[in-house]
Every structure is written in C-alpha cells, then in structure tokens.
C-alpha cells in the first residue's frame, strides 16, 4: 500500500472535496483522484460516495479513514522518533468549545507553541457534542469540552475533569424581583442566551422543563459581551459562568441573583483517544497549562 494514496484519501474525507484536498497536498485534482482510486483498487472496495456533495466516505470508507488516520499518525511518530534530538513534529488537532476558548485558550496555546515549536497545532472551536463526534470520527486528537452536571464523556475516550463551573442567572440591576426569587418568578422573562448547542442553555432548558415552565428566548448572541450589553439594556435576562461577570465591561449594570431551585453547574473535561508516542508529551503539557488557566474555578 502506498501511504501517499492513503494521505490523499484522508485529505478528501477531511475536506469533503477533491479540490480542497488537492490544494492541501499541492497536487492537481486528477492526481488526487488517481491516488484515491489506487487505494480503492488495493483494498478492493469503494471508499467514497461520489454522488454526495460534499464527498462522504462509504461505510467501508469510514473504517478505512479511521484506521488510515492511525497509520499516518504512527508514521508521524516514527519520523519524530528519529528526528534530531527527538523533536516533536507533525500536526496536533485540538478542539475546544467557544466559552472555554474565550477564558482558557490563549496562554496554554502560546505555551504549547513555545515548548514544541515544530508541532503544528490546529484549533477548531465547536460545541461539545460536535467535538465529541469529531473525536469519535478521528477528525481531532483531543478536545476541551464542558458537560452538564454529572454527565461524563463517552466510554472509550481517555478523559480528565479539570474543573467545575457554576451556572448563575444574571439580570439588569433595574429589574425589580422578589427578595426570594424562584424559577416561577422568572417564567415571564425572556432570555438572552448563546445559540442552540450551548451547554449552559441546555442546563437552563432542562430546569425549566422539569418545573413545567415556559422557555422564551428573546435574543441569541454568540458574543458574551454583546449578551451582557443587551441584558444591561433590559432586553432580557441571561446566564453567566462562575465569577466571569467580574470581567465584563457591563458588570456595574448587572447583578447575579440566587435562584435556589436552579443550582446548576457544568464540568470541563479534557478528552482524547488513548495516546502514546509523538503526542503524549504535548498533550500532558497542554493539560497542565489548561488546568492552570482554569485555576479560578474549583476542581
């Protein structure tokens, strides 16, 4: 088997396009097509569903993709093992949720780059469920995700819990509420929240559904500063994580309220497939750096 054929196939699946794969590999489109066909001839099966747009692997192709990724990673390990001084090279594909990227990614990413200068780290920011699916499909090597309450990452993945993050309700200071606030007191309020897929939003929805209360969203906004601005101006109420309100430019116009029925939290997990060899040291370094970056939150 020619490993270049395997590289071409993996690139096509990664991008869903022969054109994009050709650009990555610095080949012509016919050149990529020939390599994929050569691999199919070697294995005796069709690997791509050529009727789908974007291109998707067949059932056999999905198996070949996952196994092929491991073969290529092993080759990277081999190259790194014989490199001068044992320097770690190749690619490290890391996924992280938007919220955790905002609060914890900058310093760990810079530290990783400084410690492993020949390692190319590719970062992808998506919701936790999407990142776990990417891990299962071997599209990324590791991810930092958060999950509601006692939920844990799927079995079969190596995982380590880094911290717990309390989810709290925030309102504009101008909003008049009873001394003891209940979820029912908030049922006529509209919410300013992140887009669907956000773990905080999922925790809130479950609590309201369990209390048989309505869930009305006034505004969906990805940017936390924008959400704080809209809440401060009275467009709705929202959620915040732990002590994060202290860092908001709108903190003087907002307040955290205690809702005894809503004692919610999410937990941040570093998850990855069992890894040894080339990526073991970078992953350990990243874990320690992320733990330090999240030090404001309890374990």
UniProtKB/TrEMBL annotation:
Highest taxon, organism lineage: Bacteria
InterPro entries associated with the record: LysR_HTH_N, LysR_subst-bd, WH-like_DNA-bd_sf, WH_DNA-bd_sf
Domain HTH lysR-type positions: 1-58
MF terms in GO: DNA-binding transcription factor activity; transcription cis-regulatory region binding
This protein's UniProt keywords: DNA-binding, Transcription, Transcription regulation
Family per record: Belongs to the LysR transcriptional regulatory family.
Protein known as: DNA-binding transcriptional regulator, LysR family
